Amino acid sequence: MDPEAIQASGDPVEVLRQKGGDYTDNFPVVPNEITNWLDEQRAVTESVSLANLSHHMTALRVTGPDAEDLLRDLSVNSFENYDVGRAKQLVMCNQNGHIIGDGPMLRLDDEEYYSAGMLSANWVRYNLETGDYDATVETEPRTSAHEGDPENFVFQVQGPNARPVLEQVTDADLDSIPFYHFETIDLAGVETIALGHGMSTEFGFEFIGPFEHADQVRDAIVEAGEEHGLKQLGSKAYHTLSVKLGWVPPGVPPIYDVDEMGGYREWLDADSREATYSIDGSFVADGISAYYMDPFELGYGKLISFDHEFVGREALEEMADDPDRTLVSLAWDEDDVIDVYASLFRAGETKKFMELPRIGWGRANYDEVRIDGERVGLSHSRSYEYDAGTVISLCSLDTEYAEPGTEVTLIWGEDDSPNPKVERHEQCEITATVGDVPYSADRRKGE
Q: Distance between CA 130 and CA 296 in Å, rounded?
């Protein structure tokens, strides 16, 4: 169903709650597990990991004299100090200040920008086609959406043993490349972009190069990593990394019940990212706008700059002085989580089954968080984390309750879910403790 049909249904919330989704629907080519997801997840913090991101993201390339103008007009970020060789996490919003998408954008040249994974790629292309810009936008859908191989491989190597592994496959001085900067290096004999970035809190790099050499590069890294405990990550393990890091997918696209987004809804097709999301979790609202997210509650307030005009600026200026919510982590009570599984072995109604390690890709997770019976936030992106010994989630929480150590109650389960993939169950309460974001120390910027 395309977005305009979802809008025309009269109840976007009900339509999006009915949808299913699992790992295999959305992570093509890369298996769920290369070995097993537990050992793979442990390798990220205990040894070293190699993640293959070549197939599940939409790439975006913007070129031309007005490339910067187009991106600046859509992004909350400042474009000052954005020289060739730098990357920025561009965040794009609708007119009401709700996030459409984000992603790391590399400035390759004066008139060329490239992202190997941009969630707002459709929004950029739409604004080029409907605006007056002397620029070209090229998008490459994820492999599941088209035939053939991607243009580039995208590998992430991270972990405490990443340095000795990478020293065997490149002579480049990677420590000289600052965080969110990049250089072109020789990696295993292949000209490759080395970007100081990754989806784990551990030190490492993202490497981007021509896909025809993907096997050569991957094999060299795997061979170098054998003595250092390297594990290749399957989709399940990779999908857990962003939770401790503190990245929340933007969730339900803010395109419904917004008059200014009508043209964009009509432009999108049924295969677009915006049309394929589903809603999961205990929070159920009458209006779809309750599911939209702003940059402040996703931890992006520090990226917002009012030094230029951009879509959503006026709305964000009104929020900036006193944001309603901020992003925190939640550590779920181990005994309460165990009780969810124990209910499967007791007489009576069971609790909602808790997938491990986390909810499938493509499902926007919204669990209600309360204090003294009052809703104070929404939990997203639940994931089991081995080194934490429990389930961790990210939460957009009312700022007055954001102090680490605060105890909250999360509502687990859905009352009368219309999704056929959600079994009959009873809701329950899970105690959780507020923590920082990132959940663990961020070592990506070096020691």
A: 29
pTM for the predicted model, two decimal places? 0.93
Q: How many CB atoms lie within 10 A of CB 81?
A: 7
Contacts of 19 (CB under 8 A, 6+ apart): 276, 277, 278, 279, 363, 419
CATH number for the segment(s) 325-435: 2.40.30.110
CATH topology of 33-56+145-233 equal to that of 325-435?
Answer: no
CA-CA distance, 311 to 316, in Å (whole number)?
A: 10
DSSP string, 163-232: HHHHTTT--S-GGGS-TTBEEEEEETTEEEEEES--SSSSSEEEEEEEGGGHHHHHHHHHHHHGGGTEEE
Domain boundaries, the chain: 33-56+145-233, 325-435
CATH code matching the domain that covers 33-56+145-233, chosen among 3.40.50.720, 3.30.1360.120, 3.90.1010.10, 3.30.450.20 = 3.30.1360.120
What is the Rg, in whole angstroms, of the alpha carbon atoms belonging to the chain?
A: 21
pLDDT per residue over 94-129, tens digit each? Answer: 999 999 999 999 999 999 999 999 999 999 999 999
Q: How would residue 361 be classed by pLDDT, with cut points 50, 70 and 90?
A: low
Give the C-alpha separation, 64 to 215, whole Å: 33
Ramachandran angles phi, psi of 253, nearest 5°: -60, 135
